[in-house]
C-alpha cells in the first residue's frame, strides 16, 4: 500500500497508521524518536473512544482543561514534536508547516473550553506526524508544503489588510459619531 502524497487536497489529515515505516533509512535514534512521536500522537489525539460514537479524542484536550499547566504541557510537547521534525532532516518548508500547525493548536487551544474542543477536533499531533511521514516517504512532494505556505502567507496578508481597513473604517465612523470629524 502506498502512502498518500502530501499534495492531496486533504493533506493535513494524512494518517500515519497504515503500518509503513518511512523511517527505515534514517539514523536509528531518529527512527526511534519518530516511533515515540507516533505513539505520543496516538495517546494525545486518539486514545479515548467517545462512547456510542466512532469519534476518538486523546489526552491533549483533557490536559488542556487544567488552567496554565495544560498550556505549559502542550508547549513542551510541541517543542518535542518540532525537535523531532528538525532531527529527521525534512525540508524547511515542512518544518515551517509543522510549526504552523502547532502554532494554530497553541493559539486556539489557549481559549478556555472552546480551545479544548478545538484540540479534540484539530488533532495537531496526528497532523504533524502525518506531515513528517508523508515527507519522509516522498521527499519530492515538499513542493506541496511550499505552495501551502505561500497560500497561508497570502491569506494572512489579505486578512491583515482587511483587518486594517475594517479598523480604519470603524475608527472613522466612531470619530464621526463622536463629532470629531465634520
UniProtKB/TrEMBL annotation:
Q: By its UniProt entry, which PANTHER family does this protein fall under?
A: MEMBRANE PROTEINS, PH DOMAIN PROTEIN
Species this chain originates from: Haloplanus rallus
Organism domain of life: Archaea
Recorded protein name is DUF4112 domain-containing protein
Q: Does the keyword Membrane apply?
A: yes
**Keyword terms:** Membrane, Transmembrane, Transmembrane helix
- Residue stretches spanning the membrane: 62-82, 94-115, 148-175
Under the heading InterPro entries, the entry gives: DUF4112 (IPR025187)
